[in-house]
Amino acid sequence: MKILLDECVTKKIKTLLPEHKVFTIGQMGWAGLKNGKLLTKAVENKFDILLTIDKNINYQQNISKYNISLIVLNVNDSNIETIADFIPNFNAQIKKIEKGRTYLIEK
User: Fold this and answer.
1) Domains in the chain: how many in total?
2) In this structure, is the dihedral angle defined by the CA atoms of residues 41, 44, 47 and 50, taken in order, positive or negative?
3) CA–CA separation, 47 vs 49, rounded Å?
4) Which domain holds residue 89?
5) Neighbours of 105 (CB within 10 A)
6) What is the torsion angle, in degrees rounded to the nearest 10, for the CA atoms of residue 60, residue 56, residue 5 and residue 17?
7) What does the pLDDT look like over 78-90, one tens digit per residue?
8) For residues 78 and 44, what is the distance between their CA atoms, to the nearest angstrom?
9) Contact of 93 with 103, CB cutoff 8 Å
10) Host H or E run for residue 90
11) Are 67 and 47 in contact (CB under 8 A)?
12) DSSP assignment string, 22-89
């Protein structure tokens, strides 16, 4: 899967997802883009997933109109130690995701 990490997600998570192509917004040159424009850019660049910890994005954007999956980790911070606990559930659910939908990943 081709995964885009939202700005609020630590880039250190890339080491926890070695079987995927993971890019940061900074690597793509998209820092500071608003969510709608960011989703459009992600779709244009054939990303499968936008991975975030921003629980509000689902209420701010109509994900169903984008050909991408939004995955929200239900964490309180972006520390790698915190996020690492969510990766097993992320990996288990990633095989079942559908584009145009939002998924909340619990611990």
Assistant:
1) 1
2) positive
3) 6
4) 2-105
5) 21
6) -130
7) 899 999 999 999 9
8) 27
9) yes
10) helix 87-94
11) no
12) EEEHHHHT-TT--HHHHHHHHHHTT-SEEEE--TTHHHHS-GGGSSSEEEEE--SS--HHHHHTTHHH
Q: Terminal CA-to-CA distance of the chain, rounded, Å?
A: 21
61 touches 23 (CB < 8 A):
no
Q: What pTM was computed for the model?
A: 0.93
Each residue of 31-74: pLDDT tens digit? Answer: 999 888 999 999 999 999 999 999 888 778 889 999 999 999 99
Distance of CA 81 to the CA centre of its chain: 17
Q: Phi and psi (nearest 5°) for 26?
A: -60, -40
What's the token pair of residue 17?
A: 């997802």
